[in-house]
Design a protein that fits this description.
Helix content: over 70%
Number of strands: 0
Structural class: mainly alpha
Order of helices and strands: HHHHHHHHHHH
Largest sheet: none
Radius of gyration: 25 Å
């Protein structure tokens, strides 16, 4: 039976077989950590379906497949860092892209259409599953992240030339960052309370955490580089800023099914614009105020 397949078709089937058995393990692992009974049940059902698909490919190929340990580890870590919603959406996105290639086997595998229909039904079944707490507070995280990136990037960029010393900039950044974190979290709490939100405290905590993490990452280069390498610290800080914006917007675009490039471009453009303006202000302040530290 195997002789009827071309080498390309066999490799394609092997890829699907390994992807299915790997996905089955990943969904099962996520289900083991899920506390919501409904979510757990759906995840286990999909895991079982993925396993059945792997067995189907095994019957056609006459070969067993082992799951990819690298993918299991990678998706497991991502589910802890970014939540299971992000991982599920990312897996379904990749799975949907692979569906199109299955049509190449349509003439040789009678029930390929059933596999395709079941794969497409996964995404619909998962829509009701996505009730993860952290996604409810994406708005709060965006508030903290945006404010930290714009405010702190501008402050640090301005102080870099004004002070021309990495340690002094780091000290000023830490003091400013911690004060701004507490201020932003408190302001968001009061705003949520005023709007009648029952989860005002949680929203403010998410805002504060997003702000504080951003502060730590942006100040870090000034603690690593020597005191006189303030320009190197500045460019490293700007690179970290772009990376933060990229990772966060990619997370939101996948988890919330939103466009990526437009959001990334807007956020990066605003943050870089503020940094450039603040950098020039710091340069002028150093020159006209005759500051020499």
């Amino acid at each position: 039976m195997q002789e009827q397949y071309t080498p390309y078709e066999k490799n394609l089937m092997r890829k699907y077989q390994r992807d299915e058995i790997t996905a089955s393990v990943i969904y099962k692992n996520i289900a083991a950590r899920e506390k919501n009974p409904h979510n757990k049940e759906v995840l286990l059902k999909i895991s079982s379906e993925e396993h059945e698909h792997a067995l189907l490919w095994e019957r056609y190929l006459g070969e067993k497949a082992k799951p990819s340990r690298a993918k299991i580890l990678c998706y497991g870590l991502m589910s802890i860092l970014f939540g299971y919603t992000f991982v599920i959406k990312l897996m379904e996105k990749n799975e949907y892209q692979g569906i199109e290639d299955m049509h190449l086997l349509q003439d040789k595998i009678s029930n390929i259409n059933d596999i395709i229909a079941q794969e497409k039904a996964h995404e619909a079944a998962l829509i009701d599953l996505l009730d993860e707490e952290r996604l409810k507070y994406v708005g709060a995280m965006v508030l903290g992240l945006n404010d930290a990136l714009v405010e702190l990037t501008g402050t640090i960029a301005g102080l870099t030339l004004a002070l021309a010393n990495t340690r002094l900039v780091a000290l000023a950044g830490i003091i400013t960052g911690i004060s701004a974190t507490l201020s932003m979290a408190a302001s968001n709490y009061l705003a949520e309370r005023a709007s009648g939100s029952k989860d005002a405290l949680k929203a403010s905590i998410y805002t504060g955490i997003a702000y504080l993490i951003t502060v730590v990452l942006l100040v870090a280069p000034y603690l690593i580089y020597p005191q006189d390498m303030y320009l190197a610290a500045l460019f490293t800080m700007l690179a970290i800023m772009i990376l933060i914006i990229f990772i966060f917007n990619y997370y939101v675009s996948v988890a919330k099914s939103l466009p990526f490039f437009k959001r990334f471009g807007e956020m990066a453009g605003i943050s870089l614009g503020v940094a450039i303006i603040s950098f020039v202000i710091g340069l002028l302040a150093r020159y006209f105020l005759n500051i020499d530290i």
